[in-house]
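Handout, tutorial session.
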Amino acid sequence: MDTLKLVIANGEYLAQVWDYRRECLEAESRMDGCGPLRKAESPEWWLAETEKYLSPDTLPAGKVMATQFLAIRERDNTLVGMLQVRHTLNDYLAQFGGHIGYSVRPSERRKGYAKEMLRLVLPYCKDTLGIDRLLIFCENEYSSRTVRANGGVYECTVHEPNEELELEKFWIKST
């Protein structure tokens, strides 16, 4: 598998972020871990919105601080996935969202990128945010395998009524 690096969302990759959005919309794919990308008016708007989550002074009401990462394939500097780390949990995240959301662009799936993205972000969660145990929810077999491959321990399955989803709930120790 190609080597990945995680970078905090920035202006360098905005064209690729917009292409990622287009590809997900065309595939009718969820955009977990992408912040407000689905409803974004422009890539610049998306970046400005994600940056609001980095400071308590600009944090939208009812939301939690979060860091938006881009997973970049190093050999060609290509955006292959996105991952959002929530620094704390509110009621909704504790029940259905968890600390981490992630996705891989449809054309790059089933190549091990999600597993590597999750592995790469665990030290950030522990060392930077001080989170020892992470809550992660997933809705499909591939995501479940990703979490389990990174030490995730299944707790239960919950029903998310707004999206009509059955979500597996996992805990994973950050390293």
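The second record follows below. Compare its token runs with those of the first.
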Amino acid sequence: MVTTVTEMTKLWANVLKLIKERTDAHSYDTFFANSYIYDRQGNKLIVVVHDQVSKVVVPSKYYDLIIGCLNDIQDDDYELEFITESDLEQKRKEDSPKVVTEKKKSDYFENSSINPELKFSNFVVGEFNKDAHKAALYVAKNGGTLFNPLFIYSNSGLGKTHLLHAIGNDIKENRLPDAKIIYINAYDFVEEFIKIMKAEKDSRALKNVFKDVDILLFDDVQFLAEKVKTEEMFFYIYQDLINRGKRVIITSDRQPNELKGLEDRLVTRFTQGLTVKIGDPDIDTCVEILKQKISDSGLKVEKFDANVLYFLAEKFSRNVRELEGALNALTFSCLNLLDEEKITMDVAIKAVSSIRGGNQIATQLSEQKIVNVVADYYNLTPSQITGKDRIGQIVLARHIAMYLIRKHLDVPLKKIGEMFGGKDHTTVMNALTKVDKELKTNKQLQDAIADLERKIVE
């Protein structure tokens, strides 16, 4: 069995040579190139691979192949564990000795830290969030106390927390590298105060945590409602920071005046700065978010059919977290696909059905597939097809989509109307009648319908 670094390096070089012979070039370059043995623990080999995707795919698809290659080289019985360079870096940080000042900092808000992955560069901007993005960017790029506090509100899962972390990261990287920035979720703040009430911690020490804070990023402030003593502590900290000209950014699931259960003195102070809303995302922005997430995970956007992305965007557009969850479920279900295979609507049906349940989602997907196919055929977006634009080309495509949904899925007129901007059944019936009438004499429309029907069943 290998015992030295030289022996491990030689062993893995021979394994890679066999893997290259026994798999295709694309798979080798994607998952195995530049991999290496980091350590041996007993009969376990710790192998470093390129990225998180490889960390998942290699053991699920290629474990037996690697073991076979090892057995062809040596008789030893090995086990394999796969990690990434980022895993190693995290391990080094955890294993490095902690200085006294770090211990003191961890006495409070141990789980509160700025996520280095959440930046402005990977925050997808659309019509629904552009004001919040602009305000957050201004706060990050400029000093002073204009717009203090900045108060961002929206429904859950639409990017408020991402903007908080992006502000912190941008200030640290580009403006004030030595600034003390603290990110706190209201849950953690309440937990710390409970410990104080139980005499496990000192309230004066908690206040002292904020004495040298330059920027406070406070998430989900609505969870302080009805917690009178906790609110008092937060009010003291908040007012002290404001009085000293420090920056405060707060998020909530509703605007300040709708925060029931919070003291008026807090609510009125929240409104003294700038309040901005993140609305519900539009479909096209959701598609861009999906593309960003796919790229961030190391996958290729081209592997996903465009109609799949539009379906996910249409179905989960009210909550970006749900959108990410649906994408994760779909990606996980595709690990056993060959590299050249695309993630199609049929694949998406199975994946999304498993998390949303039942045949209903498959039916919805079929309806959405028709909309997406028609949109692609006429070089439009699905949201244009289902929207209210009255441009001739869009209206024609909309009527054709209605016609195909009715013909192939036998969907009730009322439901079709709901899909297309809340139209009544009479409007839908008129659209269907118009297409039927045109089909009798219009050869161009006949060809278009035939082409679309072939694409729908592909």
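Points raised in discussion: The beta strands are 36-41, 44-49, 79-84, 150-153, 181-185, 215-219, 247-252, 274-277.
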